[in-house]
Structure formats: C-alpha cells, structure tokens
C-alpha cells in the first residue's frame, strides 16, 4: 500500500536511527503511520519504535486520549511516552499549541533519534495556501520540509506525498480505532476553514490541484535555497555575525536579510517588520542605529553592516578573580594569553562593566573615555555597555583585546605577563 511504499523509500535513513519516535496524537494520520511502521519492522530490521504523545490539556478528553494512545502502543508492542505541556494564552491557540508540541518533541529527542510525523499532502497544501494568504516569500511557500534537524535528532515526514484519503483507506482496511477530535471540525480555526470550506470548492473545479501545489512548493524551496547560497555572513573581531550592506535599495536589502536569517536558522520576523527595518537601514543618517528585536535576538545597523546580538545583553558582570583565571557567565567569557608585556600571573583583580564617563590611558596615549576606546576599536554599540573591564582595586588596568593601562599605580604591567581577551555571549539558534 501507499504508506508502506513511502516508508520503504526511507528505509536506509530509518535503519540508521537510534530510535524511531512517532509523534502519536491518536488520530488517523499518526495511528496509520505508527501501524505501518510496526508492520514494516516485521519485514525489515528497524531500530526501536517509540510512540510519543503530547498532552496539551486543552480538551476535556485529553487524559482519556492519552490513555487510549498508551493502549494502542501497548497493543502494537512499542514503547509509549506521554509529554504533558502547558499552552500559554495567546492570540492564536493553534500556534501556541504547535510551539508547545515542538518544544516537547525537541526536548525528548536524543542524538541519532528520528521523529516521524504523519503530515500528508493535504496538510502540505493547506500550509502553502495559508502562507500564501499571509504573504510569505519563497521559503514560506516551500511548505513543510520532508526532513530537517530538530534538537539533537531529526524530523521526518515520510507521508508528504500521500493524500488524506489514502491514509483513511489504510486506516479503514486495517480497522484502526483512531481518535476523532471534534475541534478539527470547528471552522473558527484558520486551517479548519481552509480544509472544510475552501479546498473542497477548489477541488470541485480543479481536481488535480494537489499536485500543482506540490510542484509550486518544490520550486519555491529551490528558489529559497538559491537565496541562501548568495548570502554573505561575516563575523566581527568578537565573533558576532553581521551582514555587509551592499544593497542599493530597501527591497534588495529586505531580500538579503531574509536569506541571511534563514542561513543562520534564526526565527524570522514578520514580513512588514523586516521590510520597515530594511527601509530604515537604507534611509537613516550615519549616526543613527536602526534596530529590530525578534524574540531572543536583536538586529542593528551599524556602520556598513547589519549586526546580530542577544536581545538582552547581561551588563551586570562584577566579580573578583586573579590574573590567569578563565571565568565565564551570561556576560561572556574572559581568557588570557601570553604577551611581551602583560599582567603578572596570580595577581588579584576584579572584572566589571563600564561606568558612565570613566576614562583611562592606554599604551602611552592620552586619557580617553572607555566608550571612546571601545568605539575606536570597532566594538559594536550593543556590546559596549556590558564590555568587561579589568581592575586592580578601583583602577582600570586593562580593557580586554584593546590595551593595558599606563597610569595604574596598583598593578603595573610586567614583561612576559598575560593580557585578557573577551568572548561575548554567543547567539545559538535552533533548527
């Protein structure tokens, strides 16, 4: 049958996994996928199969559904795990539930695990149409990927070429007692409205519309990949990613930013927000710093580049240590390297963020404010408030990566000593 054929096509990947984890809601799609996978495992050697049920707690029958799924898994001879999640209040209950579900999936997966989801061709069509209505670009119109990384494992959608009716035929032929969630019939939800009101009318006029949507999604995916290929990520001296601005208009910069963020696997801002940010970057005067906050990161135009930082930099570093100690925290990490002239190993010091207006002399040069030294060294603006200084007592003796103080009386530099280096906190995006 079609489901088994779809799994056979993925046989090599399935056999390479540590575990095959099926996202098991108990509905027709996931029940059929789990059943077909177990049947396939009786023909070919496969890794252990796990049924993973996410209990959102949103329906009065949620616990009964979880118990049903556990019973089905037991009957099929596979391990069962239930993940209970809390869905936060928000404008879109659908989106909140989906985010909670994927967080649960990601936390469950270990290295080498594959998560199998029962999304099918009709789901793909709904996704593409919904994103088209919202004005998505090529990456959005590519629809759901057949496979991608997820946490420490991978996500597979082996049934994306299978229609809903084929899955229902499989469930009927194998007499599967799958669950029916009545909320799937409520057209107040956007996807349900498309499924029950819009797509049936499209099918009545164009019966082959699914294959057309699938082709368009594939072509959009190819276009999105070509956009990524021309993106040019560079890194500052402190390791932060930035995109050089070589666009001549806001529209071109908008496209380049979109491709760049996808390359970094960063959460994408909404279309109009990114469009406005691109416009500001092209039109703002040189001393202005247009910025856009998106979740846990901040984009900011500085000089001739768009820089990316953690959205909430920790500027509270204030600790005592010794020269040569490697220390780290939410503010970043301080390390040391040998130099012809440096600080004496083991000397007591403290590390803290700059105070407003304080100044220091570096390398026989006149005293200047710490901010001026940072600016001259090319430190991006959003890093300056939390840039750690090295002190002996209450005197600044070094600015990491920039220089040693020449007017410190408490801890003068020496030959063959150590100089401090700072690594800012890194931005790590998910997949």
Task: Please explain how this structure is put together.
α6 (121-133) packs across α9 (190-205) and α6 (121-133) crosses α10 (209-229). The chain folds into 3 domains: 2-220, HUPs (Rossmann fold); 234-310, Chorismate Mutase Domain, subunit A (Up-down Bundle), CATH 1.20.59; 318-423, no CATH class. Strands 3-2-1-4-6-5 form a 6-stranded mixed β-sheet, sandwiched between helices. The protein has a 5-stranded antiparallel β-sheet with strand order 7-8-11-10-9. It is built from 14 helices and 22 strands. It is an alpha+beta fold and 431 residues long. The longest helix is centred in the middle third of the chain and has 21 residues, at 209-229.
Protein traits:
14 helices, 431 residues, Rossmann fold, Chorismate Mutase Domain, subunit A, 3 domains
Task: Describe the secondary-structure layout.
Elements: H1 2-8, H2 11-15, E1 20-23, H3 28-41, E2 49-55, H4 62-76, E3 79-84, H5 93-108, E4 114-116, H6 121-133, H7 138-141, E5 147-150, E6 153-156, H8 164-173, H9 190-205, H10 209-229, E7 234-235, E8 241-244, H11 250-263, H12 271-283, E9 291-294, E10 297-302, E11 305-310, E12 318-322, E13 327-329, E14 332-343, E15 348-352, E16 359-360, E17 368-369, H13 370-376, H14 381-384, E18 389-392, E19 395-399, E20 403-404, E21 414-415, E22 418-423
Helix pairs in contact: 1-3, 3-8, 6-9, 6-10, 10-11, 11-12
Number of helical regions: 14
Q: How do the strands line up in the largest sheet?
A: 3-2-1-4-6-5
**Averaged pLDDT:** 86
Whole-number total of structural domains: 3
Q: Can you identify the CATH superfamily of the largest domain?
A: HUPs
Corresponding CATH architecture of the largest domain: 3-Layer(aba) Sandwich
Q: What Rg do the Cα atoms give? A: 28 Å
As residue ranges, the low-confidence spans are: none
Strand content: 15-25%
CATH names the topology of the largest domain as Rossmann fold
Number of DSSP-assigned strands: 22
